[in-house]
Structures are given as structure tokens and as C-alpha cells.
């Protein structure tokens, strides 16, 4: 129907609105917000649901486990420290070579065996040693170069060896070299200068234990 054929006079419902939207008794004009708010509501609801799901899933995790850091109670194994006082190996050379090496005077004996008087008289007495030990010692003295005729063998009947616990040599004054040679021959480690032997016909007396 055209406006010229409309039989009724104009009223408030025939007033034009911006945008050209029709106006009537049963239809009100629409604003831009009325058409946009349903979409905003859906977006807010979706965001809330997503946040709640993330919170629910991560709520049971332990912060220390979630961070991936190792436990603070874990202690690294301490390295073994080396020993502060290592013992010397068995292959180390001895710091004190034997004093009774072959060719050297016995320990505790003064004098030079090489300067001994091999013609000097030597008396060998068994002073508590095993039977035959005096003869064995005399044979060793003879083997060392002393003259057999000047080496006498017997028993310590006068007790010269009392108080000694090992084979001991008594020698006269000035006979230290000869005593050293005899001590080396019999394996003695003790020799004592004696006034009694100095006054005797012997240069050295061996008391065998």
C-alpha cells in the first residue's frame, strides 16, 4: 500500500527511526548491544569452564614434583678420601742393612778382622752350650786362618761365662783386631776386653753358649 492510499492520519507509530527499521505496535527497535551480548555470555562461560578444568587437573599435583626439581633431602654420596697415612710397600728397600753381612765385622765388635794376628793363641770353652759346640766353634776359628796348634778346646770349669746369655769373647789388651776376626768366625756379637785374659797366655777366650 502506498502512502497516498493510506486512509488514516499519521501517528507516533509512523515516525521513521534511524536506520530505516520498521516501527509498529508489536516490534520495538533493536540496539547493537542486544544482538552482541549472547556471544559475550557464551565466551565468558567457556573461559570459566576451561579455567575450572585446568585448576581441577593441576590441583592434586605437588609443587615440588610439578617443578621437576630433585628432593632437597637427596644427598650426594661423598667420595672416599684417600688414606692419610699409607703403609710402605713390601718392595721398599730396607733402611738399615744387616750389620753382620759377610766380610764385615760382627755388630758390637770393634777392631779390623783383616789386621788380626792369625798366630795368636785362642781358647774355646763350652760355657753352657750344647755338647760339641766348643769343638764346632774351634773348627770355625781354624777355618778362618788361625793355626790349629794355637787353638785350644775345653769346658768353662772356672765359670768365666757366668752372667752371659750369648756366646761372648774376652780378649786381652791390644787384641781387638784378633778378637774381631774370631768373633766373625764363630758368629759372636759381643766382645769384652779383659784384664784376666791379658794376664793369660791367650789372646782371645771364646765362651760358647
UniProtKB/TrEMBL annotation:
Where is the sequence biased in composition, kind Low complexity? 65-111
The highest taxon in the source lineage is Bacteria
Task: Return the annotated region ranges for Disordered.
Answer: 61-113
The UniProt entry, under InterPro entries, shows: LytR/CpsA/Psr_C (IPR027381)
Q: Where is the LytR/CpsA/Psr regulator C-terminal domain?
A: 121-207
Answer yes or no on keyword Transmembrane helix.
Answer: yes
Transmembrane residue ranges: 36-57
Q: Which UniProt keywords apply?
A: Membrane, Transmembrane, Transmembrane helix
A Pfam family annotated for this UniProt entry? LytR_C
Task: Kindly provide the name given to this protein in its UniProt entry.
Answer: LytR/CpsA/Psr regulator C-terminal domain-containing protein
**Organism source for this protein?**
Promicromonospora citrea
Amino acid at each position: 500500500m502506498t502512502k497516498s492510499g493510506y486512509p488514516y492520519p499519521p501517528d507516533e507509530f509512523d515516525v521513521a527511526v534511524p536506520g530505516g527499521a520498521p516501527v509498529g505496535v508489536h516490534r520495538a527497535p533493536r540496539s547493537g548491544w542486544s544482538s552482541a551480548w549472547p556471544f559475550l555470555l557464551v565466551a565468558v562461560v567457556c573461559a570459566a569452564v576451561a579455567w575450572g578444568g585446568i585448576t581441577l587437573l593441576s590441583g592434586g599435583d605437588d609443587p615440588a614434583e610439578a617443578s621437576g626439581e630433585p628432593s632437597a633431602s637427596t644427598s650426594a654420596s661423598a667420595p672416599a678420601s684417600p688414606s692419610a697415612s699409607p703403609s710402605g710397600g713390601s718392595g721398599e728397600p730396607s733402611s738399615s742393612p744387616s750389620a753382620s753381612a759377610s766380610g764385615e765385622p760382627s755388630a758390637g765388635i770393634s777392631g779390623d778382622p783383616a789386621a788380626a794376628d792369625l798366630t795368636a793363641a785362642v781358647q774355646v770353652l763350652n760355657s753352657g752350650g750344647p755338647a760339641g759346640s766348643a769343638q764346632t766353634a774351634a773348627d770355625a776359628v781354624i777355618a778362618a786362618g788361625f793355626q790349629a796348634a794355637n787353638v785350644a778346646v775345653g769346658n768353662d770349669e772356672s765359670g768365666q761365662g757366668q752372667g752371659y746369655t750369648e756366646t761372648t769373647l774376652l780378649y786381652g789388651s791390644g787384641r781387638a783386631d784378633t778378637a774381631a776376626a774370631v768373633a766373625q768366625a764363630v758368629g759372636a756379637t759381643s766382645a769384652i776386653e779383659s784384664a784376666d785374659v791379658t794376664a793369660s797366655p791367650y789372646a782371645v777366650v771364646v765362651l760358647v753358649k
